[in-house]
Task: structure prediction
Amino acid sequence: MRKNIVAGNWKMNKSLSEGIELTNEIVSAGNLDENVQVVLGTPFIHLTSVSKLVANSSNIEVSAQNCSDKTSGAYTGEISAEMVKSTGAEYVIIGHSERREYFKESNEELAEKLNQALANDLTPIFCCGEPLEIREKGTHFEYVCNQLTESLFHLSKDEFSKIVIAYEPIWAIGTGKTATSQQAQEMHAYLRTHLAEKFGKEAAADLSILYGGSCKPDNAQEIFACPDVDGGLIGGASLKSADFIAIVNSF
Ligand code: PEP
Result:
């Protein structure tokens, strides 16, 4: 059975004390839908503190926003998947479009990051999505399928069963321009079919596929109602507890 998941991506926002304050507001709200897996994607330096704050919450986990494709060694400034796991975090976002664009992360490098995450018992939230020019050309299905093929198709069925996918059309991230629920549904269904061809129908049916891109309290309900949308990866609206909680409670 696939899970409904709402994951916040704080990006490079919030000082440590601000992050602790936001976490406390979410943890103490007392009205989170218990059937939703809530994930807080914090900056690296917040992971240990935020993990401690959510330790007694049955449905809140913590995520890093990236990890290294290397195991350990002389890679100044990098953070390994093993280090992420040692903070208490259980998830890691891999392949966000900002990492792909600004840090030139390729599909091949992201495949290595996935391997690192899985080897360290972290749940990867693997991001995919097309830029505007690809959507306008009409080749978005092929483009996103190719991202998945090149980064995921080396995984075993068992490894595949441990990952989460986030479909995030780049033209909808931080722009206020959400994909329509129909656009989200058709891409999610297409990706599920593509993945079923490789990993089998049952494994694809059990996969959680999140939508990301200007998801807000006023559009989350419609998007989450789509049969192949299993939740959201939330950027801007994850920075305010009231908005984030409203999104979590939108199923
Ligand atoms: C994101 O960056 O993953 C994202 C979905 O951002 P926003 O919700 O702000 O569009």
Notes: The longest helix spans residues 181-199.
